[in-house]
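WARN  no MSA supplied for this record, continuing single-sequence
INFO  ligand: magnesium ion
INFO  echoing inputs
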Amino acid sequence: MASHLSLPITITQVTKSYGKVFALDHVDLNIKSGEFLTLLGPSGSGKTTLLTVLAGFTRPDGGSLKFGDTEMITVPPHKREVGMVFQNYALFPHMSVAGNVAFPLKLRGISGGEAARRVERALEMVRLGGFGKRGVDQLSGGQRQRVALARAMVFEPRIMLMDEPLSALDKQLREHMQIELRQLHEQLGMTTVYVTHDQREALTMSDRIAVIQGGRIMQIDSPRVIYERPANRFVAEFIGESTFVPVTVASGQLTLAGQVLKTAEPLLMDGARLLLLRPERLRVLSTTEDPGQGFNVLQANLVHTVYQGDSSLMQVSMTDGTLLQVRSASIGPTDGAQLSPGRPLRLALAVHDTVLLSTEGSPS
Ligand code: ADP
Ligand code: MG
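INFO  complex generated
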């Protein structure tokens, strides 16, 4: 189970339609050898379809799929040597843990001592060493999911496909398993394509995230770039909290409520844009505080505050009536919950957080 067994995946112009619906619309995606890539998108965006194309259960209408240098489109599922874990992990309920994990080996004609050794090693990987004799029905949800994982890994696949494998688990266990899966990936290094609709899960686990919508890849980047520099409004809206303010760039300058703002990227073209503001990146300044170079200072008035435990969410109004949201930790003198409505506020916004998006795809 070493990283030299992993393979890059090259997806070129893969299309699959059902009637008039494009489940996949000319998808191009290069997944690196050993990479943990997450497909992130809302329900119906084409995630499962793409995964089943990789697994060989769905034949695309067109396009090419390569594992390494080998064209895979016509290769049947059982010859693709990919490990798979799905949401409904479909263990055989009347078989022991070891029986379940040994199943893929049996299909490949591996039995006896060799099979037993591999099963035990796979179980140790998922921290279920010694559990082989137990019945599947004696296990917790998290343990069952780990059995499914051991079963997917036992034949040492070069590629691992996972479709929302944690979505049936409760929040605490899910977060624990996210870290475990990630660590396991670091240990084994097989190329992994992971599907989720949960943005935090994607940010936590991935080397890169491919955001998919309507069968199209909207952006593929590291979690940090996806969050800090979303390619468009859809990506920005889908990941994290955001306020979008329609603005105009004129004579190479961005002006908001009468104030000129410095921006993260140079303004090369005049015209309409959307200013993307993340509520947690706006900071309420104390009356005399000067945030210094590298920050824009916005003048606003507090409209109201919602206390949410770990933080407070303030709605503020700029002098031209533009409404923004500001999230602040619910501690300290600038805790929004301690401020009264109507109070004037100065907000600091780092220049590198002053990000403009094109207005394309936004409702007008
Ligand atoms: P996701 O996994 O992101 O929720 P899917 O890949 O399951 O999305 O589905 C993408 C689109 O393709 C949806 O509009 C879905 O209704 C459609 N679709 C998927 N599989 C089939 C099928 N077997 N028959 C008809 N439509 C399908
Ligand atoms: Mg799905």
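The domain at 243-358 is CATH 2.40.50.140 (OB fold (Dihydrolipoamide Acetyltransferase, E2P)).
INFO  checksum written, moving to next record
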